[in-house]
Design brief:
Layout lengths: L10 E6 L6 H14 L4 E5 L14 H7 L4 E6 L2 E6 L1 H4 L7 H8 L5 E5 L9 E4 L18 E5 L10 E2 L4 H18 L25
Parallel strand pairs: 1-5, 1-6, 2-5, 6-7, 7-8
Antiparallel strand pairs: 3-4
Helix pairs in contact: 1-5
């Protein structure tokens, strides 16, 4: 059997922040802007809730699970539901956003991830909001992977910092990172004739973009 190269992972970046920090609002605005600029955008959101799509007792999928299938996927005209049983759920791979993106979003240009603040190998933009009692994520759980901040109050970190209403600046920053990712993974270059907006921006390591 001929060897095949590993599938390159689309560029992904996470918006992280404590509850009610406004990360969803910021990420949605950035997603809409990048979409209008011609990028194929995927979104992977983490949640602590379970049972969001309960399986009916006696359904075909539940029968497969009871038969011993570790993972069962149901493809419908309007949805794709993947369920794992308890034994499969012990596998931490399903909580690895890079692994999930590789499987679920291979045809996307950029995947915006919401949550997964504890994940490794994942660049993060931290969204802060005045009044949140929890401390800065960049100084705690995953500081080495927080590469930018979104906040309307002064910060001490020497990181690019954007206001919450500066979706254009955040999108420009992400586009610059995407360009670097493309250079590292030439197989992800757009096909001939595919429309893509030019990206003249360069990344800044200054505190302000």
């Amino acid at each position: 059997m001929a060897e095949t190269n590993p599938i390159a992972v689309p560029f992904l970046i996470a918006f992280v922040g404590w509850h009610n920090s406004g990360k969803t609002t910021v990420a949605v605005q950035v997603a809409a802007l990048l979409h209008r600029q011609g990028f194929r955008i995927g979104v992977l959101k983490s949640t602590k809730e379970s049972g969001l799509a309960p399986d009916r007792t006696g359904s075909d999928t539940s029968r497969y699970s009871k038969a011993g299938a570790l993972r069962v996927a149901l493809s419908a005209p309007d949805a794709l539901i993947v369920r794992e049983n308890e034994e499969s759920g012990k596998n931490k791979t399903r909580r690895d956003p890079v692994a999930l993106v590789r499987v679920l979003f291979p045809d996307m240009d950029i995947v915006l991830v919401e949550g997964f603040k504890y994940a490794k190998r994942l660049p993060k933009i931290e969204v802060r909001r005045e009044g949140i009692k929890e401390g800065a994520i960049s100084a705690g759980v995953s500081g080495q992977e927080v590469i930018a901040l979104v906040c309307d109050t002064p910060v001490e970190e020497n990181l690019p910092c954007f206001r919450t209403d500066d979706s254009a600046g955040i999108a420009r920053f992400i586009r610059g990172l995407h360009e670097q990712h493309i250079k590292q993974h030439p197989t992800l270059q757009p096909e001939p004739g595919q429309q893509r907006a030019d990206c003249p921006c360069t990344l800044s390591t200054d505190k302000t973009p």
